[in-house]
Amino acid sequence: MTQATLSQTSNSGKAVIQTKSFTPSDIDRIFQAQKKKALELRLSNFKTRILKLKKLKNAVLKYQKEIQTALHSDFRKSAGEVDITEILPTIAEINDAIRHVKHWMRPKNVMTPPTLLGATSRIVYEPKGVCLIIAPWNYPFHLAIAPLAAAIAAGNTIMLKPSEFTPHTADVIKAMLSEIFAEDEIAVFEGDVSVATALLEVPFDHIFFTGSTPVGKIVMAAAAKHLTSVTLELGGKSPSIVAEDADLKVAAERIMWGKFLNAGQTCVAPDYLLIPESKVEEFVKYAKETTESFFKSKPENFTSSPDFCRIVNAKNFGRVSSYIDDAVKKGAKIAYGGEVRSSDNFISPTILTNVSLDARIMEDEIFGPLLPIITYKTLDEAIHIINERPKPLALYIFTKKRSTSKYVLKRTSSGGAVINDVILHLVNSNLPFGGVNHSGHGSYHGLFGFKTFSHERSVLQTPKASIAKLMYPPYSGFVRLMVKLTTKFFV
């Protein structure tokens, strides 16, 4: 028997002990049961899948209060922010699947070349089978249930590993899903890294991981042992560029919202700001005003704001707060905020100016409420700074000129991009959400999530009298002539 004991720190500073026990044979038993169930589910029609999705939706709504309470216990997230960032997008993702899964499941007829005259071609979407979903701690409910909904829509069985850093939310997820699904269809595995490690030994049909790039590499290496397909939703340093002509008040309002949402613990949060030197003072002025209007207080009193949550645990608190110290030692100035309190992992909304590109805050993904400001003289200089770093998950451009946004987009690469706003590309389920290289592999949301958890099977059907017979030996002069004509006119 392997026992996983989790010791967390709640927002009150008290230890939260979570103990889970499991054996590798438990994991294998459930995996084998899910393999058997997957053969049944691959035959399910759209009505059956819609029924399951509706059960999931109703369960989310039923457990809304418990979800709010759990997230407040895990890192003092307010009920309003839980509704906006966890409940609403989850329900939207489920509803999108309910509305469209019938269409998504239909085989797609595709063109057949003249060289296969008389044949028909189609793409059939098949469930991948038994899937593992490893969820992160920053949006621990939404980022567990949204990919789960896509996997259900595609007809899979799922083994779900919530984050050990948000144990209260993990408990609610397990209670909710256990109430509506048998473990041979959806099973939740709570526990620490040893649980995740044991799960990664299993030959899944697909692994969907959301988390950091270093852990993503571990997941990908483990999947490679079984040649398992992987979707990696990672992170990176998502830059915001404010151009010379940008509306600074609008830019400040939108960047501050995206930066301080969830105390900066968002994979697509604006990580750092690139702005002309002449615009810094005015931008900081608007940024201060905006932040204080959001949280109804001055920086020293943000601890009392019900809408500003905490860093998830002491380890991350230490990491994020150390970025401030390191940046200041290397010449940065705290233009706003900078208050920290270890007793409840509080770091106030903070703006840093005169930041060195060699500071650690410009090397690592921040994942906290700190905004370093970097100045540039030309747009090409800003682009160079972006391109010196790994390709980010998101890129934000603030400008009134379409030509400026096009110029930046053509010369940079990112998982997604938003012009004159931040984060909102996630809201549109018709857009794929995912990274590129270090910021991720693959995508999901809407149809893209369904495809992620599906195998696109190519099916070609030929008639009794097939032109393919011309390819059979012996290769006579007539056959060679036909090949020559086909090469010239039909391919």
TrEMBL record:
Alphabetically ordered keywords of this record: Coiled coil, NAD, Oxidoreductase
Pfam families membership: Aldedh
Highest taxon, organism lineage: Bacteria
Cellular component terms (Gene Ontology): cytoplasm
Active site: E233, C267
InterPro entries registered for this protein in UniProt: Ald_DH/histidinol_DH (IPR016161), Ald_DH_C (IPR016163), Ald_DH_CS_CYS (IPR016160), Ald_DH_CS_GLU (IPR029510), Ald_DH_N (IPR016162), Aldehyde_DH_dom (IPR015590), Aldehyde_DH_NAD(P) (IPR012394)
Ranges in coiled-coil conformation: 36-73
Homology family: Belongs to the aldehyde dehydrogenase family.
Protein name: Aldehyde dehydrogenase
Species: Leptospira bandrabouensis
